[in-house]
UniProtKB/TrEMBL annotation:
<dbReference type="GO" id="GO:0003676">
    <property type="term" value="F:nucleic acid binding"/>
</dbReference>
<dbReference type="InterPro" id="IPR041577">
    <property type="entry name" value="RT_RNaseH_2"/>
</dbReference>
<feature type="region of interest" description="Disordered">
    <location>
        <begin position="674"/>
        <end position="729"/>
    </location>
</feature>
<dbReference type="GO" id="GO:0003824">
    <property type="term" value="F:catalytic activity"/>
</dbReference>
<dbReference type="InterPro" id="IPR036397">
    <property type="entry name" value="RNaseH_sf"/>
</dbReference>
<dbReference type="InterPro" id="IPR043128">
    <property type="entry name" value="Rev_trsase/Diguanyl_cyclase"/>
</dbReference>
<protein>
    <submittedName>
        <fullName>Transposon Ty3-G Gag-Pol poly</fullName>
    </submittedName>
</protein>
<dbReference type="InterPro" id="IPR041588">
    <property type="entry name" value="Integrase_H2C2"/>
</dbReference>
<keyword id="KW-0511">Multifunctional enzyme</keyword>
<dbReference type="GO" id="GO:0015074">
    <property type="term" value="P:DNA integration"/>
</dbReference>
<dbReference type="InterPro" id="IPR043502">
    <property type="entry name" value="DNA/RNA_pol_sf"/>
</dbReference>
<dbReference type="Pfam" id="PF00078">
    <property type="entry name" value="RVT_1"/>
</dbReference>
<feature type="compositionally biased region" description="Basic and acidic residues">
    <location>
        <begin position="709"/>
        <end position="729"/>
    </location>
</feature>
<feature type="compositionally biased region" description="Basic residues">
    <location>
        <begin position="676"/>
        <end position="686"/>
    </location>
</feature>
<dbReference type="InterPro" id="IPR012337">
    <property type="entry name" value="RNaseH-like_sf"/>
</dbReference>
<dbReference type="InterPro" id="IPR050951">
    <property type="entry name" value="Retrovirus_Pol_polyprotein"/>
</dbReference>
<dbReference type="Pfam" id="PF00665">
    <property type="entry name" value="rve"/>
</dbReference>
Length: 729
């Protein structure tokens, strides 16, 4: 959304994900701003729902705030929920409270200083202890949020007034502006706690740091604007006139000078924020609640069980009245009551819950506790409440939660990785895919079209330029000219396959076009696996010349089609051409009569259906199993010099032709199989008196190169013995 509407100035538009708030001073300006937003959305093909929109509003609720022409303040129901928050009993609840009230910290002067006893509990190696300081801080934050002022809208055409102060525990700042009548109104507040090291700084440095941090926090408003800074620390008046500052102070002064502020002095008694920050006391007295707590029932029990987001306290008399009027509870109401006079279930402590309150309890037990499952919901509800068909309703509520359905992992067994498409006739169905993002060759090729027949596993690989539909259609037409028209073409949802050009090509040729599910490569698993094999083979062949991959593509295609496929037991070439492929490895050629050729051809034709059935059974065994891909990259070869310890878990290795040594763990080593090189037998036979193998050296060499000898492989083939031709003997 930022890319779509980012060109609109921020004083006219506020964005948060898909929430759009348009700001205007007059109705005419509002219409102009609306038109600009609609034009941008239309240009990018986006729409908004009219029933979710509100236009020409004088007051809106946006991200937990109430925004009007007077300013910004917290939403009332959010403040009410925080005001009713019960004192935390564990570290997790402290974090939850600080997170909730911290969202409105800009409304609370000296937030960090007030919250210091609470944030101290979050430090490392601090035992959770809820004492008087923590309780006073907790109550102060709730009270300050209740009386939070309305923050004025900033006006970039007017000067900003920044008031700062520092104490031994924190820094604070206030951003404000004067209205047309000269009355100063707060725009926002800033505060943060000092670190252990910063608390040891002298007063002057802490005051300068408060100025620097406040200016940086409100940088968005202040950069380029007229700034007046007010402080009750008189030495700061000449801070920007110091010559040759050094160290920490030089850094602080450099950051402050960027805003070019005019510094003014105010008396401490006029700096109310300084009084609140530096002279704050924790012995705060609070008035008792107006409600008679003995006549108030809190639904949900202790704060430990449910979240703090809802205040659902009910009058005891109202609760009793709802119990008596509920027709579903009448058969279960008896003479049993608890200490509050509420009807309970038999001799148990479970309060009979009226049907009107069931949705509230379900929401508290599920929505406000992290969307837990039915079992945990019942564990929370059963000790306190009961109503008819409670278990079924709890299970149904958890099962039908839209949020859970959108976020939880699927609980059912996953579908098989690839289901073979039912086409037993060769070339009746073909799968097509693109392998892209390849290095551009000198011919201009940068993509590969891969076409395969799932029945015979036969594949063709064609290098192409670009990924246009026209090029893909032309390549498919070449396949059709060689193997005939298929009944179906299966592909993924790539742009070249969902285009109108490709669809028109399929319609013209009378081919049915099917797709794999979006973002599901397993739906086109056959050709995807070929892409992987092809990529690995090309990587090995191109070596240091990756832009020559197109020259090796025919070799990769031939190797794949003439190799025995694991699912069929024969090569794709045999299934297509009904004969064994001729190979470079055939040294002896056998003369075969025409009758033998016909016999072998008929035999291969008869086994095609059997091979296809075997492939289906092989796929069925693989279906549903998890496959892990390993992309381990190995370097080497290395020579193992010696183990680093007696346990031989790590070894010292060096490059085969290098001198630099390094230590490698055993798990990151694997044997390197050396391919023997055949050499003519020397005219001077090796010495027979040594104990070493002729190919590895004599016993004289073995002492100096014992480790290298151990790594040399044994000769796999006998040495070729050269004899003179018989005709010369």
């Amino acid at each position: 959304m930022q890319k779509v509407l980012g060109h609109i100035p921020p004083h006219r538009l506020a964005l948060y994900m898909d929430d759009i708030c348009i700001i205007s001073k007059t109705f005419e300006e509002h219409l102009v701003n609306l038109q600009g937003v609609f034009d941008a959305l239309r240009q990018h093909g986006l729409r908004v729902k009219a029933k979710k929109c509100a236009f020409a509003m004088k007051e809106v609720k946006f991200l937990g705030h109430k925004v009007c022409n007077k300013g910004v303040q917290p939403e009332e129901h959010k403040v009410k929920a925080i005001r009713a928050w019960v004192a935390p009993t564990c570290l997790k609840e402290v974090q939850m409270f600080l997170g909730a009230v911290g969202w409105y910290r800009k409304f609370i002067k000296d937030f960090s200083t007030i919250a210091r006893p609470l944030t101290w509990l979050l430090e490392k190696d601090v035992t959770f202890t809820w004492g008087k300081e923590q309780d006073d801080a907790f109550n102060t934050l709730r009270h300050e949020l209740v009386k939070a002022p309305v923050l004025a809208h900033p006006d970039p055409t007017r000067p900003f007034v920044v008031t700062t102060d520092a104490s031994k525990v924190g820094l604070g700042g206030e951003l404000s502006q004067e209205d047309a009548q000269g009355q100063l109104h707060p725009v926002a507040y800033f505060s943060r706690a000092l670190t252990k090291r910063e608390r040891s700084y002298p007063t002057y440095d802490r005051e300068v740091m408060a100025m620097r941090d406040t200016l940086k926090h409100f940088r968005y408003y202040l950069l380029g604007a007229q700034v007046v800074m007010r402080t009750d620390h008189k030495p700061l008046l000449k801070i920007l006139e110091q010559k040759d500052p050094f160290g920490r102070r030089a850094t602080l002064m450099r950051d402050i000078a960027e805003f070019e502020p005019r510094i003014e002095f105010i008396r401490g008694q006029d700096n109310h924020m300084a009084d609140a920050l530096s002279r704050i006391g924790w012995n705060v007295k609070w008035e008792e609640r107006d409600e008679d707590t003995s006549k108030v029932a809190t639904i949900g029990g202790s704060q430990d069980e449910i979240g703090p987001c809802k205040d659902v306290r009910l009058d005891i008399n109202d609760f009793q009245l709802q119990q008596e009027r509920d027709s579903t509870l009448k058969p279960h109401i008896s003479t049993h009551r608890n200490e509050h006079g509420l009807f309970t279930r038999d001799h148990k402590k479970q309060v009979l819950l009226p049907a009107s309150l069931v949705p509230t309890i379900l929401s508290l037990a599920h929505d406000e506790t992290g969307h837990q499952g039915a079992d945990k919901m019942l564990a929370r509800i059963e000790p306190r409440y009961w109503w008819p068909k409670m278990k079924a309703e709890v299970e149904n509520y958890a099962k039908t939660c839209q949020r859970c359905a959108a976020t939880l992992a699927q609980g059912h067994r996953k579908a098989p990785i690839h289901q073979r498409l039912k086409e037993e006739k060769p070339f009746a169905l073909i799968e097509v895919d693109l392998k892209g993002s390849l290095p551009r060759t000198k011919e201009g090729f940068d993509n590969i079209v891969v076409i395969t027949d799932p029945c015979t596993k036969y594949v063709e690989m064609h290098p192409i330029r670009g990924q246009t539909s026209q090029v893909v259609c032309k390549t498919l037409m070449g396949w059709i000219s060689r193997y005939g028209l298929p009944n179906k073409v299966h592909s993924d949802n790539g742009p070249c396959f969902i285009s109108e050009t490709f669809e028109q090509f399929c319609i013209t040729q009378g081919i049915e076009h099917t797709f794999s599910p979006p973002y599901r490569p397993q739906g086109n698993a056959g050709v995807e696996r070929i892409n992987r094999t092809m990529g690995e083979a090309l990587t090995k062949l191109v070596d240091k010349h990756p832009n020559r991959w197109s020259q090796h593509l025919p070799d990769v295609q031939l190797a794949y089609n003439t190799a025995v496929h694991t699912s069929t037991g024969v090569s794709p070439y045999e299934l297509v051409f009904k004969e064994h492929p001729r190979s470079k490895f055939e040294i002896i050629t056998e003369k075969i009569s025409p009758a033998t050729v016909r016999e072998k051809t008929e035999r291969l034709r008869e086994t095609v259906s059997e091979v296809f059935q075997k492939a289906q059974e092989s796929d069925a065994k693989l279906a549903g199993k998890r496959r892990e891909r390993y992309n381990n990259r190995w370097t080497g070869p290395y020579v193992v010099v010696k183990p680093t310890s007696v346990t031989k878990t790590s070894y010292v290795v060096r490059r085969n032709n290098g001198t630099k040594e390094e230590i490698v763990h055993y798990n990151y080593l694997k044997p390197y199989q050396i391919r023997p090189v055949k050499k003519p037998k020397s005219r001077n036979p090796p010495k027979k008196n040594g104990v070493g193998h002729p190919a590895l050296g004599t016993s004289e060499d073995s002492e100096s190169d014992s480790r290298e000898e151990e790594m040399q492989p044994e000769r796999r083939y006998p040495e070729r013995i050269r004899r003179p031709p018989e005709k010369y003997t």
